[in-house]
Amino acid sequence: MGGFGLYIHWPFCESKCPYCDFNSHIKREIDNNEWSLALTTELHYLFKKYFKEKESHTLKSIFFGGGTPSLIDANLIGEFILCVKENFKVSDDIEITLELNPDDSSIKYLTSLKENQVNRLSIGIQSFNQEDLFLMNRSHTANQSYDTIKMVKDLFDNFSLDLIYGIPHSNIDKWKFNLNEALSFDPPHISSYALTVEDKTILKKQILSGELIPLGELDVEKQYWHMINYLEEINYHNYEFSNFSKPGYYSKNNLGYWDGKAYLGIGPSAHSFDGNMTRSWNVSQNMSYLNSIKKNSLPLSQELLSLKDRFNELIMTGLRTSSGVSTKEIKDKIGEKFVCYLEDNAKKRVLSKDLYWDGDYLHVSKKSKFLSDGIASDLFLINL
Q1: d(CA 122, CA 105)
Q2: 257 contacts 5 by C-beta, under 8 angstroms
Q3: Which of 107, 142, 106 has its CA nearest to residue 125?
Q4: Which of 98, 131, 182, 200 has its CA 20 to 30 A from that of 48?
């Protein structure tokens, strides 16, 4: 497995955002100790399943996601991190990230997170416009966002601001305002995603009923290009389609995922990947997860990826990054014939300047970045 990452899924939120299709549940009262014990127990199970000895693999990053992991008591987070370090070999410069909602922030909580070894925060700002926050049913206010970032900057060198573009009723001026407000804090990292309409979400129902009208694709693209050009102009590196970083502040968790590195997932619905051909995922239902753990059973399903599926994954993830798709990696992991297929199938897109080669790496051109997922799907292998 070599170097790997660890993801911990906390499945609870104070409220459900209408666009969210993640495994999250509204629960006012949570037994933190019960869940901490379950997650720690699963951690021990995974160590026994995947590792013969502590020194065999190095943990590069820990990411607490959700849901809303900033609802977890900071001391419990610290206890979990200590448990991780007791079980795994940890890199000296390990990145430990926690997703933070602005309404969960206080100097006391943030200080406790730092004392408990969290060294990076991903702050769910989404928008500095109160109207947007209301539309997205966010539980925090714009003023709480400003206050939270100020507190975080006083305590943490490494943090990221999460923003959403393409929100209904927004326009380019509102988006410029959001981006400028974020940049006024000089963040080392920004993650920014288009608002997408996923099945089985409240947002999908609102659009189908006519309650909300989605922003037109041209308007969404206009906001995207303003972000790309402006952040590039002020020396943020767009190292992955939705992620921008100053030098030295790339998210190790994000990079590990997009570069196809191994990762372990803990908690309901969390996914794991061995970095090669095996993927697994936990049961999503909370009580089923807890009951499995109590019965000393790993609550997971597992699949062995086909060569076709692995090829398609390498194309999708590679084209989203500034590194591009490595033909050497394809050859080493799944075979020379897949490189030949890629080279032949990419010719049309290279001629149209949607793609270009830089040595053994295939990249999406800047002009076609917004269409990168569609371009990747054109390169997919349908039949082996």
Answers
A1: 12
A2: yes
A3: 142
A4: 98
pLDDT band at 19; cut points 50, 70, 90: low
| pTM tops 0.90 | yes
In angstroms, what CA-CA distances link 364 with 321, 323, 340?
Answer: 9, 10, 19
| CATH classification at residue 177 | 3.20.20.70
For residue 269, give the nearest of 28, 66, 30 by alpha carbon.
Answer: 66
Q: Do 371 and 235 lie in a common domain?
A: no
Beta pairing partners, 165: 194
Look at 164 and 53; give whichever has higher pLDDT: 164
pLDDT at residue 170 is higher than 60: yes
Let me know if residue 167 belongs to a domain.
yes
Q: Please report, for the domain that includes residue 369, its CATH number.
A: 1.10.10
Distance from C-alpha of 147 to C-alpha of 178, rounded to nearest angstrom = 16
- Reported residue count of the chain is 384
What's the rounded Cα separation, in Å, for the pair 166 and 151? 28
Pick the range with the lowest mean pLDDT from 70-74, 123-127, 159-163.
Answer: 70-74
